[in-house]
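note to self: dont lose this again. the chain is below, predicted strucutre after it. 324 aa total, dont forget to put it in the shared folder this time
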Amino acid sequence: MRRRIGLVAVFLCANATVAAQSPNGVLIAGNKRAHTASIVDLATGRTLKELPMPPGPHESAISSDGRWGVITGYGAQQPGNTLVILDLTSHAVARTLDLGEYRRPHGIAFLPGDSLIAVTVEANQAVLVVHRERGDVRAIRTGEQTTHQMAVHPDGVLGYTANIRSGTITEVNFSTGAARSLAVAPEVEGIGVTPDGREVWVGSNTAGTISIVDVRSWKVTATLDQGERPYRVTISPDGKLAAAALTIRSRIRLIDVATRRELALMEAPANAQPVGMTWSADGKRLYVACQGINAIAEFDIATRRLTRTIAVGDGPDGVAVFSR
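---
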């Protein structure tokens, strides 16, 4: 009897340890083939709600307080022109914002204060600043073709876009509307900015490289060969690590930002096709949308291993996380 009680205690202790290791919070994903958005409890991995979306939902973001989510209505065969605001308390659509003439919204982020949202619009060669409640729209022109992905500096003043067809990046000032562009590499797409604002890391789909742009001199100062296209690039919250999604071989490359050397190749599940990525706020976990297996892969950065996969809808692309 005593041995049985001991085994039960060990079992409960082990479960408590696992629970303690799982962050509390919420995850959202835009599922572009299902035309839905998944809202997931981060601790359990359980889907709280899968909501219908306009055609082709792509990228996603969560407000700094975890109350609001936003999904871009990119469109499928026909260009989309909506942003869907999610209430993450009630797990419902709060409102859908019509962007009017502005089409193919993609890269997206909440700006400080959470009342304004920055979003790229491919068809209009621009970045929009949109009021979350009123839907007011202000456009900042990039003048570049296929303004697609976007990385925002933590202070929320500057953003950087990757313009695929032009092979350029554009720095936009959300306050003044100023913009400047730089030729980088062919078909740039994945993009991240270091938290100190000194460097922008940009992936080239055709060259299979990551270009590092020094913001002050506004020049490419280094080029890192990835061996295949780095479809998405993101920088950790502390600025020490860069992650590149190597979609073809279903791997995630971790790079030391200071030395620019590879630290690890983290294996995603077979045929996962990793795309969108986001870090936990503490930088201990990396969440990767895997469109080949309709799941989000969670990686532990300390061990550099896959810890779990979280099922979502068909064709996840953008993923956002709010963790406590």
